[in-house]
């Protein structure tokens, strides 16, 4: 039986290095990701944020240690068995065809469709429902190459949610977006976690993390990892350390900002 307050993902004493790099990206890395919260993975470029996400996804294999999942619906020990319950929104992706928004979101239904089969009415209805929940109904027949950056990122999230995941991973989900689109994506993530989805997202922007995060993982290349809640991990001292600059946390109109 999985307790609702148990970590949704647990990593203990993990080591990882790329074949062409002597220095490890992760060294005796341990962290417990909380269930039904927003976890923000913070760090500069090259600190290992994306590497960690791909280790969780099983795209990369650790030299030592493993990723353990504690899912409510599928209590299995590895990503191969739980892949349908973990969705991923990449920072960038290549698409060979110019799909419509509906066609693209339907890819999220793949775990529920048998090999060589097509989506059934149930899949199409669920995809449409997801599109509607993200306020994308007016774009349902539009080609994804004709979308703005903010619209495309919302469509990517809709595709991930069509998978009905327990865990949603996102890699730099607001990169290259304008301020309005960034805020829109962050608001979507805040609402999603209230529906029971455990969210883990990587970002280099501490203000995105502090805006919606419940739990924080601070990473710096080749240095000790810091993790915890807002009070223990997201301090000016810790942030200054990982970004190698003097940072302060201030309050403006009831909201915390990092400057």
**Main beta sheet strand tally, sense and closure:** 6 strands, mixed
Question: Quick one: CATH class?
Answer: Alpha Beta
Q: Which overall shape is indicated by the principal axes computed on the Cα atoms? A: globular
CATH H-level homologous superfamily name: P-loop containing nucleotide triphosphate hydrolases
The computed structural class is alpha/beta
Q: What fraction of the residues are assigned to beta strands by DSSP?
A: 15-25%
Q: Count up the domains.
A: 1
Describe, in plain words, how this protein is organized in 3D.
The chain is α/β, with parallel strands linked by helices and 259 residues long. The chain has one domain (9-258): Rossmann fold, CATH 3.40.50. Helices cover 29% and strands 21% of the residues. It contains eight helices and eleven strands. A six-stranded mixed sheet has the order 5-6-7-3-8-9, sandwiched between helices. Strands 2-1-4 form a three-stranded antiparallel sheet, covered by helices on one side. Strands 10-11 form a two-stranded antiparallel ribbon. α5 (149-161) packs parallel to α6 (179-193). The chain is globular, with a radius of gyration of 19 Å.
Please give the structural blueprint.
Layout: E1 9-16, E2 26-33, E3 38-42, H1 49-57, E4 67-69, H2 79-82, E5 86-89, H3 101-106, H4 121-133, H5 149-161, E6 167-171, H6 179-193, E7 198-203, H7 206-212, E8 215-218, E9 226-229, H8 236-243, E10 249-252, E11 255-258
Parallel strand pairs: 3-7, 3-8, 5-6, 6-7
Antiparallel strand pairs: 1-2, 1-4, 8-9, 10-11
Helix pairs in contact: 5-6
